[in-house]
UniProtKB/TrEMBL annotation:
It comes from the Bacteria. Residues 271-392 form the Thiolase C-terminal domain. Residues 10-261 form the Thiolase N-terminal domain. The keyword Cell membrane does not apply. Transmembrane segments: none annotated. Keywords: Acyltransferase, Transferase. It holds the Pfam family Thiolase_C. This is Thiolase family protein. InterPro entries: Thiolase (IPR002155), Thiolase-like (IPR016039), Thiolase_C (IPR020617), Thiolase_CS (IPR020613), Thiolase_N (IPR020616). The keyword Acyltransferase applies. Belongs to the thiolase-like superfamily. Thiolase family.
Amino acid sequence: MAGYGDRDAVIVEAVRTPIGKGKANGGLHDVLPVDLLAHSLREVVTRSGINPEQVDDVIAGAVTQVGDQAVNIARNALLGAGFPESVPGTTVDRQCGSSQQAIHFAAQGVISGAYDIVVAAGVESMSRVPMGSSVLPGSDPFGAMAQRYPEGLVPQGISAELMAAKWGFSRQQLDEFSAGSHEKAAQATKEGLFDRELAPIAGLSTDEIIRPGTTVQTLAGLKPAFYNPAYEARFPQIQWEITPGNSSPLSDGSAAVLITSGATARRLGLPPLARIHTTTVVGSDPLYMLTGVIPATEKVLKRAGLSLADIDLFEVNEAFAPVVLAWAEDTGADLAKTNVNGGAIAIGHPLGASGARIMTTLVNALEQRGGRYALQTMCEGGGMANAIIIERL
């Protein structure tokens, strides 16, 4: 295994809540998102054994920062978790990659010497704070940007349809991938592969959305989720193949990752799980807004001086099935090494929490499988993507 330097950023602990259905009947609906995040913050510090007064900052991702998720949820949650008042917190929004960006910011702060101990986290309660509810009636969040795209941009579901059409994926291919996600996640749950990372809450001890026994035949009965006749003339290539079964579901959850400098980990006797090797973020076409994972993967590998063959595990957020399939086709990555314990189609995609949730799952999977390098990447609204490479220690 690799060593690490004094100013390397290392992950010493990572936890997440089980992921609940993002609906009023979901297992986490009655938990305020600030308390959901507080649970992961409290748990990650308790499991590590550090004193929370040693934390230099808490950086948390949250996408829909309105209502129950307003007013800097990171600060409110850390105080709710019992951290000392001296610990600051800030909330970031890079759309679906918000808490992966929190991890990037945390690592960059450690490497620069600004932090010794920092928590990167994320939360989203899509059952309590519906996606898009921060755009108020009569508001215009785009302004002059709209003039640059006079034909108009589209919702993510339409972008997913455009990807499926451009890469020529059939409904059968999309549903086969999605059924496989459920199969892998159900098997990982059965084998206890998630046990170490889970912090049960509100009576929920396992992920609620995974459907064991999901087949291509059952998925084939689902109707297109984003059909809109208004787009038919503009995009005649769309075949309307994106359904609730090959998309990530509405979800509730939180996750937290504790990151320290190498010197701090040694001083406190904290065994690192992984070193944050390389990070990057890219912009991409905001119409095909989900394609950024492709250039992000290429950029982070080049920056790291590594090749696809060096990577033992990949995590590519399953916002929609064509995202991962197009990524694999264009990069040449091995799908057998990708989302090995299932992905967001099965486990769920609580927007602001997903980056930290995926990292928590990835760092444990890397250890369980004895690999060295892992790469995580996420597509993001507006046409962006984060990518990160970690190295097991």
